[in-house]
Design brief:
Rossmann fold, four-stranded parallel β-sheet, alpha/beta, binds D-glutamic acid
């Protein structure tokens, strides 16, 4: 048993969709969440800079004595995962391999769309992992750089966002996909608009589900599950405005969200 918390981080509020899944399936585990809301979006940044940011965040999370870290951000997972694993003696879990597994298991016609930030798409990681599971599959990757700014602005249901969803996704439905990976942790917040656009015939894969299953397996194998049954008091840290973050988190998470603490992440 290990009662220390799990660190979860993202460039902003997107990682809350992974946190939500973790708290559903692992209700006893305490989470320390860091959202880099002052430096979001990561999607167009140089991969080397994203690695530096991820290292700072993991150093910060380790000051909170976390027993594992979930990189709840595809854009950070793509360049950082091997570095963070090599440099840390605790389990580090990314979202891309789990997302690829979920997609390969879900498709029936073998045609999988992947939507993500420009950084994730340029990394080529989703096609690599999906084809690594089954080389017969066809993968259609598409960068959707307009999504994250709209989501961070809270515009998850407005008509302009619906028009942007249509502009991007009509390109993928035209390819006959039957499975679509939400390859950015912000995108499940657009799930309603995306589902309406692609219709019932397309299965939406949220990598948060497989990521949480991997976290569960990792904790079980290391005998590192939390042994206390009390409701955990999660902690929230951000590099930007704590009030904005709290309002957003209250809408996404099933639990009450206390004030987030502003953190000078550049110090780490
Ligand atoms: N939520 C992040 C992801 O999963 C990306 C958002 C950003 O561009 O910072 O890729």
């Amino acid at each position: 048993m290990d009662n220390r918390p799990i660190g979860v981080f993202d460039s902003g509020v997107g990682g809350l969709t992974v946190f939500r899944e973790i708290s559903r399936r692992l209700p006893n585990e305490k989470v320390v969440y860091f959202g880099d809301t002052a430096r979001v979006p990561y999607g167009d940044r140089d991969p080397a800079q994203v690695v530096d940011f991820s290292r700072q965040i993991v150093r910060f999370l380790r000051t909170r004595d976390v027993k594992a870290v979930v990189i709840a951000c595809n854009t950070a997972t793509a360049p950082s995962l091997p570095h963070l694993r090599a440099e840390n003696d605790i389990p580090i879990i990314g979202v891309i391999e789990p997302g690829a597994r979920g997609a390969a298991a879900a498709t029936r016609n073998g045609r999988i769309g992947v939507i993500a930030t420009a950084g994730t798409i340029k990394s080529g990681q989703y096609p690599k992992h999906i084809l690594g599971i089954n080389p017969e599959l066809s993968v259609f990757p598409l960068a959707c750089p307009k999504f994250v700014p709209l989501i961070e602005a809270g515009r998850t249901h407005d008509p302009e966002t619906a028009a942007v969803v249509h502009e991007y996704l009509s390109q993928l439905t035209a390819e006959g996909i039957d499975t679509l990976v939400l390859g950015c942790t912000h995108y499940p917040l657009l799930r309603d608009l995306i589902a309406a656009e692609v219709g019932d015939g397309v299965t939406l894969v949220d990598p948060a589900v497989e990521t949480t299953l991997e976290l569960m397996r990792t904790l079980r194998e290391a005998d590192a599950e939390n042994g206390t049954l009390a409701t955990p008091r999660h902690e929230y840290y951000v590099s930007g405005d704590p009030a904005f973050f709290r309002d957003f988190a209250e809408k996404v998470l099933p639990c009450d969200v206390p004030d987030a603490e502003k953190t000078d992440i550049e110090k780490y």
